[in-house]
Design goal:
Blueprint lengths: L8 H35 L10 E3 L5 E3 L3 H17 L2 H10 L3 E5 L6 E5 L2 H9 L7 E3 L2 E5 L5 E5 L7 E3 L9 H14 L22 E3 L7 E7 L2 E8 L1 H6 L5 E4 H62 L5 H56 L5 H11 E9 L4 E8 L4 E7 L4 H5 L3 H10 L5 H10 L19 H10 L5 H7 L5 H8 L3 H10 L3 E4 L5 E4 L16 H14 L11
Parallel strand pairs: 9-13
Antiparallel strand pairs: 1-2, 3-4, 5-8, 6-7, 10-11, 11-12, 13-14, 14-15, 16-17
Helix pairs in contact: 2-3, 3-4, 7-8, 12-13
The structure holds zinc ion.
The site of zinc ion (ZN) has 7 residues, from loops.
Amino acid sequence: MCSYNPASFNDRLLLGLKGTVSEAELHVIKARLRGGILNKARRGEYRCPLPTGFVYDELGNVVLDPDLQVRETIAYFFETFSRVGSASQTVRVFKKEGLRFPSRMRNEKLITFQPLTASTALRTLNNPRYAGTYVYGRRYYRRTADGKNVPRKRERDDWLACIPDAHPGYITGEQFQQNLKILEINGRGYEVARASPPREGAALLQGRAVCGLCGRHFRLRYATRRGRQEAWYICDRAQGTRGEPCCQSIAGAPIDEAVGALVAAMVTPTAVELALEIRREIEARHDEADRLRLRAVERAQYAADLAQRRFMLVDPSNRLVANTLEYEWNDKLRTLANAREERERSQQQDRLALDDAIRDRLIAMTADFKTLWRDQSLPNRERKRLLAYIVEDVTLVKLPEEGTTRIHVRFKAGRTETLMAQNPKSSAQQVKTRPEVLELVDKLLDSHTCSEIADILNNQGIRPGGCVRPGKADIRFTALRVSYLAQRNGLRTRRDRLRDRGMLTRPEAAVRLGIHEATLASWVRHGLVTRHAYNDYAYLYEVSDSSLPAKHCSRWDRLTDRVARMQAAQESRPSHPIKGVVV
Ligand SMILES: [Zn+2]
């Protein structure tokens, strides 16, 4: 037994060397181990932990989980995602339906069912193994300064192994790629034009309406006005981030109506496309069946060939055997002919069934779509999902001068369509008095007071603008309303108009006539002077310069007599008299 003394130089050197060598050995062993793993992984043979829903069978092959509930839940998960188009909405659907998602404990047979979380949903959607692809090395580990191993993601091209169709999966490879694309689009930031998955709001073009001025996607704003929910398409992203003014804000209802009508009209060609899709599906199924039938034919052919060879090989002189073999050969040939015939007939039938099926589906679908689209009980989210199959995006440009909005609809197939929609009038515009009414009021003010005008308008059946307000349908014009209207619209007042025509106020008229204001009132009463009302209680007096009635005061010549004389004089004179002036 020899021991090393660390105090001795030679011993210490030897110990150091041994340490170095063992370190190198460890490295080599590890490298070999790793190399072995990598080689196995590249061949797709390395057994790594499987995601829930897959197990290794006795032979070490990856198979779908034998537990039916696990399998069906995962299948339902993918189906839900392809329906709703968003991971978080899939989570919501699971929650709403009270479904739980399976999770298999690692290295254990135990399966737990837990509520689906967004992270589980994303992990499941991002895992290529569900598409039957064997992958290895999607992540690598970096050692941090504090000695922890932190996983990092590798780019898809840098994965150490990626073997498509290595084992059965829950979805196809194409579907997996499509899911990734949807997730990427959903996850994009606000700035990029993106189509968001349909949500429950009323606005039909949610996530599909693009601003025609700046190219950003519209946001939606809902407001309840007069008991109705109104949707607005608003482009205010630049406002939120850069303090710029709101780009466009467009009322949703007319736009949705126009696009809805267009889609309902457009659905026939789309239905044809869908029908073609179905045709392809049915054809694929028939091809599968045909392949199976072909196998039967091949088997019969093989049997017939075998019987023929046996017959050829037999000694012709051995009649008994030769007869039996010939009989057998004939039998096989008959079977072959039957199989071929059967195949032909089935192909024919398939073709017939295909045409009938397509025609029926086509007719049903066109009718169904229209009914469905107009069905009030159909949730908006479903309508938007239908729309998403047909419309790629819709660009809106508001034209405030014309009071319209231009709608460019881009369909999935690349076709475009341009529509115009009338913008709804603002509340102020709705209650505004019509210009022709204003004109009429302007004309009437020349000869009528405001209360007279109100009566005239009411009698003509003209109603004030405010009657469009809810519960205000029975309001009528009043003097106050007419004078407010005149004032707001800068019409000249009746008083100004009368003054322009030379009418005098009461003091002015009294001074002009040289009488007292009380006498003036009396003259007016008796018709010596004409006065004109400019509102319900104030007047202006018409006093002509040419013939002022003389001031007269006599008990024997009373005012009534003067008026009678004046009227008599007027009647006798044919020329048009100046009204209200005493001769
Ligand atoms: Zn904009």
